[in-house]
């Protein structure tokens, strides 16, 4: 088959790599280079992530096999232990917070006692009105009010009371009462896949991305504007013809590019909400941390990614991130609140960064995806599937789709 893949981010590149073994595959990418939002940019000789920090790991064995056996061998990566902290009342406590109650007790004993009492007495009836309700029932009121609700208000740019809890499933470590209690009396910690992660030995994630792209036919500077089905063939921009098309383009945009999409589908697509992320790249003081969460509102950054700690040897560089659009001046001014951030170096505002799980999420995604399925157009990836996907889940989804296409 002649297969067209729209977009050359991690998803497009991964499925391209898998399908090109058996098919004639071409990727169409609007930017002048492949990699999408995971691509790094090199400034002052240091590769940083303009669309927020990235690290790689996966709970899926087939993803690890694909990455280490087919793309970049395991001995070209180094493993980094997560050393993440949360800034709380001017102090740093380790992440995840549910296991840091002993540390909190050292500077805020009443808070630690309130967290413990509320966690152990929280009642989870598994019926959640919204995301705020989910946090309260899972973690108790004190932890919800001091960490989860303020932090999530920042990363979603809206109150959790206006959001669906759909995205959190599998994304957060949720201790039960027994493991929370063990955390109080021992050094028990979480078992999340990102407790350690891999980073290329070149100290640049593009090494992995470029390996993914190696050998693929990628047409860059090609913006997909129209998609049409004519006599069982797909026609892109009236010039490129394919037997099968896989789109990784954002689900809110794709239906508008397809000829004769029904109004109800276009209306559903227009209901899909997403956020941008603004990042500033800094030279910093020395740190052993890998990243820092900032739930409190005095500082509008929600997270620092200490990218220099992903490197071997370490360097003193970090990115600060805020959801939404900020000017360079606003970013620099806010950075002055923390002397850790010594010198601003580079600045970026993304396009799509996070999909938003609001009250329209379920019905709008269902309507758009059903339409795409009916017309036989595959949609894939973080924005193609309109999901909170990390790179590894994009690769997993690509593996599954490639298998489905090859079996059909
Ligand atoms: C702040 C942040 C932090 C993250 N951290 C991590 C992390 O630590 N670990 C991890 O594994 N994942 C992380 N992720 C997720 C990861 O970035 C994504 O899962 C992955 O990069 C998505 O790849 P994709 O190919 O699905 O989408 P994209 O990268 O968006 O690729 C889509 C491609 O389509 C192209 N395109 C769009 N419109 C058109 C058009 N009309 N014509 C042609 N081409 C078009 C785009 O230019 C782009 O190249 C993070 C994401 C964000 C936002």
From TrEMBL:
Coiled coil: none annotated. It holds the Pfam family NAD_binding_8. This is Protoporphyrinogen oxidase. GO terms for cellular component: cytosol. It comes from the Bacteria. It comes from Pedobacter terrae. SUPFAM superfamilies: FAD/NAD(P)-binding domain (SSF51905). One of its GO terms (molecular function) is UDP-galactopyranose mutase activity.
